[in-house]
Amino acid sequence: MAAPRYLPDDKTLAEWAKTMTHQQIADRVYRDTGYRVSRSSVSAALSRAGETSKVRYDTIPWRVRVRHNHEYALVMLRLLHRRHNGDELSEEQEKRLDSWLSRLERDKTVVAYAPDTEEGFFYVPRERGDKNYVRKEPIV
User: Fold this and answer.
1) Do 74 and 105 have their domain in common?
2) Cβ pair 110, 124 in contact under 8 A
3) Total domain count for the chain?
4) Are 120 and 70 in a shared domain?
5) Which of 51, 55, 74, 99 is geometrically suited to a Cys-Cys bond with 46, CB 3.0 to 4.6 A?
């Protein structure tokens, strides 16, 4: 027997996704049905319906391992991408990003990625060819 479906049909989900975040959709499902669904369930349903695409951050040239997904340098590069795309950042995010970029400029450093290390991200001296605050080639 199949598990009951609490999410609306794909067409409704696609309509909601035009104006709501995945978390807002999950919250609405709870309000409408009384059943809790996770944000990731909403994301998975939209993906199965072909209604999402992977977010591509032009500021992040590496394939990042899951264990490094919340490292500060990566968070800042995502914020930088959002700023470049004209997305709204909170006042706190703006302040943190400006401070981080100022430090990179002051120290003449860029972010480098070493996927096989525990830390993942490192700040290295800027070299010719480094763009957008990153060293494109992963550190091996």
Assistant:
1) yes
2) yes
3) 2
4) yes
5) 51
Structure token digits, residue 28: 């609405």
| Structural domain range at position 118 | 66-125
44 and 79 fall within a common domain: no
Which tokens belong to 70?
């919340």
The answer to whether position 61 is within a domain reads: no
CA distance 128 to 109: 11
This prediction has a pTM of 0.64
Note whether 93 and 100 are within 8 A (CB): no
* Cα–Cα distance list, 114 to 5, 68, 117, 123, 131 (Å): 42, 10, 6, 11, 17
> In this structure, is residue 138 part of a structural domain?
no
> Could you give the count of Cα atoms lying within 13 Å of 117 in the half-sphere of its Cβ?
11
**Residue 41 is assigned to a structural domain of this protein:** yes
* 40, two tokens: 């990731």
Per-residue pLDDT of the chain (140 residues; tens, 9 = 90+): 667 788 999 999 988 888 888 889 999 999 999 999 998 899 888 888 877 655 567 889 998 888 898 899 999 999 999 899 888 989 999 999 999 999 999 999 999 999 999 999 999 999 998 988 999 887 76
**Residue 136 domain flag:** no
